[in-house]
Design goal:
The complex is a heterodimer of chains A (248) and B (400). Chain A is built from nine helices and twelve strands. With 248 residues, chain A is an alpha/beta fold. Chain A has a six-stranded mixed β-sheet with strand order 6-9-10-3-11-12, sandwiched between helices. In chain B, helix 2 crosses helix 6, helix 7 packs across helix 8 and helix 8 runs antiparallel to helix 9. The chains are: A alpha/beta (248), B alpha/beta (400). Chains A and B meet through helix 2, strand 7 and helix 3 of A and helix 7 and helix 8 of B.
Amino acid sequence: MLKITDLHVSINGTEILKGLTLEIKAGEVHAIMGPNGAGKSTLASVLAGKEDYEVTSGTITFEGQDLLEMSIEERAREGVFLAFQYPVEIPGVSNVNFLKTAINEIREHKGLPALSAKDFLTLVKEKSALVALDASLASRAVNEGFSGGEKKRNEIFQMAMLEPKLAVLDETDSGLDIDALRIVAGGVNALKSKENATLVITHYQRLLDYIIPDFVHVLYDGKIVKTGGKELALELEEKGYDWIKTAE
Amino acid sequence: MSGTLIDFCKQLEPTQLNLPAALLQAAKDGVEFQHHFPTTRDEAWKYTRLGRVAALKLSPVKINQSAAPLPSSDSIDIIFENGTWYCAEPPAGLHIDFSSDLDSTAWNACTIQGHVQHINALTAQGGVAIRIDANTKLIKPIRIIHRLQGEHTGLILHHQLVLGNHASAQLEVFFEGTSEDSYANVLFDFFIGPGADLHTDMVQHTKGTHYGFHTQRIYQQKDSTFALQTLTANTHFTRNEIEVFSQEEGTHTQLYGAFIGRETNHIDNHTYVHHMAPNCTSDENYKGVLSDKATGVFNGKVKVYQDAQKINAYQSNKNILLSDQATINAKPELEIYADDVKCSHGSTTGQLDQQALFFLRARGISEAKATDMLIKGFMAEIVGAVKSSHIQEALHTLLD
């Protein structure tokens, strides 16, 4: 589904990713772990198409298409979803209105008719229950006045509504208490299928107790330096990242 | 007959409005009109040039009342098609007359300040006088539509609305039509009686090279409430002057404004709130979005008079510039002579929130639609204050 080959990315002339290679197949859950500054969030931003980053070399294909050639919205319409580390507050734009626009733009892209108001509301009800998001939050302005946990649950709610092929969760566990973490992870697990894939970017092993990865990659200094199964996460938790640094 | 604006003003009959003699004299003495147009050296006109306006070749439209009454609708309509005006049958408690019946006693409280008001005082061709009896609660809104058409047309009107004790009403005012090199100077005097409540939504959406000057003077008596939403969308040239006189205790004033300019539009909002009595509140919130080479002006002044204690005055102005060549000149002003008041003011100008734009696009929404959503979101608190659902719908179309 996603194939990243020898990716080099710079921001303001500083190289962050230095030859990253990664392949994700449908049905798989991958985790990327790594110390601060390793380039984890850069990878997430580049996948979503954030324009501040410059891809200097390498390729990314998504479902056989050149992802780097696509605009931000095209990527989303093709099925790439980024759950933001810091969800943005948008005063005056209602959560429901924004999601309705997003869903219908995606449906139009796929050649499907717009969702009726009734079907849309049914979907909102069903999907907000999945992450225990209060229905009143759905009608409020996007993330405005939401708590940290509510913002993250709102991200997963959007993911549930948009049903992406590839979900990239950027530090979704940061700032979550254990209950919120369980709810968020439960939502992600419920959405898992053979047709879609998940890339979990995280600092700590904690989230991986709830979202069980098929592969764990260690990102260090812009490259994946180690790949293993879920036990690698436990090893990292125990030994810290210095272990990787010295092992290199 | 036609000539420049000054010639135009001179050729008009002296106003037929029964203004108090002292006021007329004050207007005549107004040097701005008599000798020169204000220039950018005058503080009140620092960012708005009147050269083009002074040079306009104008012919006044003919004022007359249409015999045919308007059919009844969901509002009480008064329509000016150029100078011809149409009026619906008013319900009990509401009186709509042509301006010769203006209430001159109310006018004794008025002052006339500045160029726009001087021209209006001397040469107003007419206007409507609206009186709402004490304790009358109007159910339907009053809707006044000004539709100026043609080339080089000029229209100067002076309206008056007197709201009796504990009366309440909702007013909608529209400025529309397509005209070229035209001029309008429309002044409203609002007298809000004790305990009365007036909510006004004003939409300015003229097309063509129209020069619109709009004045609202509001005189508030004890415990009265006045709310005004001024919405200006893509007008060639607009100057708004709003002056509120909170004359007695317990008044509440709300002034909201939203302005959108594109191409070379020029939109100027001047507001002046006089807190002359204690225990009053005012809430002012103006938002602007300018693109292309549009320019905007926000000059909001709040003056708290000596002994006007326990005033709570809030003022905010926020602007978004969508292009490098768009300009906003913002000047919030506070003048306080009392010592026990709460006043705040602030003004910010920035660009569209790039993080928010990225977020919306990352959910599959096109850049154009995302920009549109963010602008609507930015304007939402102003648009939300509009009572008329009819105007709210119109605004959503205007914002697209």
